[in-house]
Amino acid sequence: MVVTASPVLAVQADEVLDDPVLEERARDISANLRCVVCRGESIDESNATVARDLRLLVRERLVEGDSDEQVISYIVDRYGEYVLMRPTFGGANILLWAAGPLMLLIGIGLAAAYLRRRAQATAPTEAALSAEEQARLKEIMGDGPSA
User: Fold this and answer.
1) What Å distances lie between residue 119 and 54, 93, 99, 114, 116, CA to CA?
2) CA 96 to CA 124: how far, in whole Å?
């Protein structure tokens, strides 16, 4: 029960808006904004002072009449795209989104090239012994002429 209530504890009573519709919108926006201090938590879950300031800023902008997109855009303009829990798919972020699949393809290509080269290589044990080596081997094994 404590685990399910912990995100609710981050939003303090003096932050909650009187209008339930605006409060619901503020919670939705806050759940999608990352705390710049806590890194893995949204500002709705975080008890950090910066998260509280951001929650108040979100509510202030909503009361002023901004749309959800305008509020998010305002905060991203101030703090950068890092505050978004789900980064956008555009600009420099395309490289970040593509890096994982690209690395996977490179890895598969390298593995395939290694396996192909390995399959085509002759094993060192397949090379035949020279006549001198065969004579020496027979001598060592005791099958050949002894000195």
Assistant:
1) 60, 40, 30, 9, 5
2) 44
Token pair 């970040």 is at which residue? 96
Q: Which amino acid type is present at position 73?
A: S
Instruction: Please give the chain's pLDDT, 147 residues, in tens.
Output: 444 444 455 676 667 777 888 889 989 998 889 888 887 888 888 888 888 889 999 999 999 988 989 999 999 889 888 888 877 777 777 887 788 999 999 999 999 999 999 888 876 666 678 889 889 989 999 875 554
Q: Are 20 and 54 in contact (CB under 8 A)?
A: no
Nearest to 57 by CA among 40, 76, 81, 80: 76
Q: Which runs of consecutive H residues, i.e. helices, occur in the chain?
A: 2-10, 20-31, 49-63, 68-79, 93-120, 131-141
pTM tops 0.70 = no
